[in-house]
What we know:
With about 325 residues, the protein is mostly helical. The chain is built from 13 helices and 2 strands. Helices cover about 70% and strands about 0% of the residues.
Amino acid sequence: xxxxFLTFRRTAISTGSLAAILFIVGVVSxxxxxxxxxFSHVTDALLGKTAAxxxxxxxxxWQLRFPRVILAMMVGAALSVTGCVFQALxxxxxxxPYILGxxxxxxxxxxxxxxxxxxxxxxxxxFIGSLSVMVLVYTIGRRRxxxxxxxxxxxxxxxxxxxxxxxxxxxxxxxxxxxxxxLWLLGNLSNANTASLFIVIPVVLIGSMVxxxxxxxxxxxxxxxxxxxxxxxxxxxxxxxxxxxxxMMIGIVVSVSGVIGFVGLVIPHICRxxxxxxxxxxxxxxxxxxxxxxxxxxxIARTILAPAEIPVGAITAVLGxxxxxxxxxx
Length: 330
């Protein structure tokens, strides 16, 4: 039976409102940049009315900005949803892919694939790197058969630091092959293209829908594994599916965007405050809010010093670090 605060009407209103905001922010992001395009031209282009739009604007819209806008949405959504997953499974409000070192593991996998000259295997290598770090952090975090969330968090921070050192070492040793890889250290969406979207979109959408379908199980496991088991949740199966799927999502987005921190930390908490703790509404609202948040962060990153760009990860860090400190004090 659904809790009284969660109704179909409230879910529809919440997700519908966020979807409308996301569309508006997306249109603004398509229009604003180093070259400003009139909003009327953007909306006409989206509706297929391109006769009166200059060809130069169409090139900017479809080849440069549209892939970047969609990628920002997918990356923000993936980071937010996986942040929800880790916070529920580890029962730790500070758990998220960046702090746990999982994003750094994916970056190491990406760089190794680049060094080996196997660019086609970057998504697979990034996934393996993310999954390896997650398994390692989880193994260290277990103490006497129980998960110690404090040890888990410290293990994630230390392993993330270790993998960041490996990233710097790889870049130092293979400077020519990895000359553009410094952008991965703070996140960057400038390399967005249609080919990457064909990989990112299905993984993020399918993964998010699977987690949403497990919303009730996440509600139960968040209150304790023993009670969840007694109420019929197959906890080991849910963990295995969640770890593999979340690592795949993180690995894929890291391979195209680099390390972007704090999105998975900030957004789930904001959604719980605004919409309640039920994961059946937290997952879809986190998906949409994360997409909005990273889209706005990327808009700031590429316009505040236009035509130069700031790494989008620097913007999310500036916004997310104070929130992290507040959570630590709480």
